[in-house]
Amino acid sequence: MGAAPDLDFDVNDERSTRAYQIVEEVELAIDGYFDFCDEEERPPTVTGLAVFMGFSSRSALDMYQTYGDGYAYALARAKSIIEDVTIVGMLTTGVSPNGVSIILRNHHGFKDTKEHTVGFTPDALKRLSNARSRVKKAKEDAG
Questions:
Q1: Three-state secondary structure of the chain
Q2: N or C: which end of the chain has fewer CB within 10 A?
Q3: Claim: this prediction has a pTM higher than 0.85
């Protein structure tokens, strides 16, 4: 997969020096990955970006987002581009809505939410009030 940077140390070992010392190096690697994807006519993925940049996992790539605003911005923007390409690609190629949902939940942090509204209809409130009155009367009669 493409020309990853020449790394002579383990980028996943926190004791090692960072593979990308400045934000511009990260930006160049990101641009290189998107160029590679264009040349190979393949859709970009976050995992592909991580591997292209010389990391062994997405989480190692994610760690770079904690190294400061410049790193965070560059990687968040790259992930947003990948997300957009993924969504547009799925929507224009006839992938089922379930497929789109699975990809977004598992790879882009989307969450399914369900709203539950609990309430009583006016009729239910009236029956509840009547039941309370009957219980109260029964207690008075018993006491």
A1: CCCCCCCCCCCCCCCCCCCCCCHHHHHHHHHHHHHHHHHHCCCCCHHHHHHHCCCCCHHHHHHHHHCCHHHHHHHHHHHHHHHHHHHHHHHHCCCCHHHHHHHHHHHHCCCCCCCCCCCCCHHHHHHHHHHHHHHHHHHHHHC
A2: C
A3: no
